[in-house]
């Protein structure tokens, strides 16, 4: 399901990619969760490129789900969003968790 989302995203069909990623995310695929967070952060309404402001609440929700499953990139993105929002304590926490998760992968 995740790979089908990637293929349809690369073909420019964001609505179908979003649907595949949501299915994969509901089955615990952290890459799909991360991709949904990234898409929401960059485009706003999932699947609609017309809105460029981004939907940070939706992005945060998907990143948090991925982070709960150990995705270091999602943790890093949560740190970045917190930093941009001026919440330095939360940013530091997420950056530290991301580093710990990365360190755990290299052992």
UniProtKB/TrEMBL annotation:
InterPro entries membership: Sel1-like, Sel1_AlgK, TPR-4, TPR-like_helical_dom_sf
Residues annotated as signal peptide: none
Pfam family membership, one: Sel1
Molecular function in Gene Ontology: identical protein binding
Name the UniProt record assigns to this protein: Tetratricopeptide repeat protein
In the record, what lineage is assigned to the organism producing the protein? Bacteria, Bacillati, Actinomycetota, Actinomycetes, Micrococcales
């Amino acid at each position: 399901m995740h790979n089908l989302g990637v293929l349809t995203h690369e073909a420019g069909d964001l609505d179908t990619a979003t649907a595949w990623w949501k299915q994969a995310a509901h089955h615990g695929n952290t890459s799909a969760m991360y991709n949904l967070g990234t898409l929401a952060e960059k485009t706003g309404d999932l699947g609609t490129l017309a809105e460029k402001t981004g939907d940070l609440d939706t992005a945060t929700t998907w990143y948090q789900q991925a982070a709960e499953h150990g995705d270091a990139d999602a943790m890093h993105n949560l740190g970045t969003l917190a930093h941009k929002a001026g919440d330095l304590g939360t940013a530091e926490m997420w950056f530290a968790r991301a580093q710990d998760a990365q360190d755990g992968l290299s052992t």
